[in-house]
Amino acid sequence: MKTLVLKPDKESLAIAADIIKSDGLVAFPTETVYGLGALATSGKAVKSVYEAKGRPSDNPLIVHVHKDYDISELVYDDFPYVEKLRKAFLPGPLTLVYRSKGMVASEVSCGLDSLAIRIPSDENAQAFLRACDVPVAAPSANVSKHISPVTAEHVYEDLNGKIPLILDGGRCSGGIESTVLDVTTETPLILRSGLVTSEMIKKVVGKCEYAQHKEGDKIKSPGVKYKHYSPKCKTKFFERKDLDKAVEEYKSALNRGLTPIILCDDEIKSQLMNVNAIDIGKTSKELAENVYEALHEAEKISDFIIGIELVGDSEIDVGVMNRFFKATRDD
Known about the structure:
10 helices
């Protein structure tokens, strides 16, 4: 299969919509990461997403729709606070998990009675979803467990020959996946941390908690159960207090003939001397925007990535560190 990479315009969006409605796959940009879209009402199309990514079949997908799509066709709206959340954060990097009406393929939610829905704010994503005008199931557009893609090039490197079309909308601005919030209970529960924090949610609806994921639980959100966001090379993670140990590990790797690199924030970078390091950023916003790009860059030039705990200036760090730790923890 030849994979086309096209800028989103009237012609390419029409092609993309035809592919989706014919049970094909299209990678498209959002404000967080690139998604791999399939017709959510088609079991055949959804299965092909899992196949293209090599994704475990019990890891649910998120359905994406444009801002004017009537989601009441797909889900039940159980609590008054949900409308407040939609008005405050959507379109945007917040995914809401509702009770499903069973209108999409069972493979989307892996047989669960819930359905995760997202309305991205990215203009190209909105144009793509409006051209399709159907619910589009979409995980990140990468091989399962690999670093999430924030450019069309990242998508192409993983999925060239596996999908017919990538819509190239440039680099994603947000950098980490959406917050996933369970709204099937009286108190909204964060299933996956992201750019919309519990503090932001509490300011709107007065309450929010983090879900406690237990061994054996059926998961309602992607990014929870399995190893994710990982480079293809050896990795190791250190807490900030163990900076000296990280530097020792770096020097030891050099002596073993490896090409190590350290990924860290601005404060740690300023303390390092005579090491190859990538400064991911200073503020939480910068860390979120740059973490996947830094991991992709490091993977290309190194065979051993050493990650040092990141600290920014807001609760967004919870989501960033969730990804960064999973990416750099010891193999």
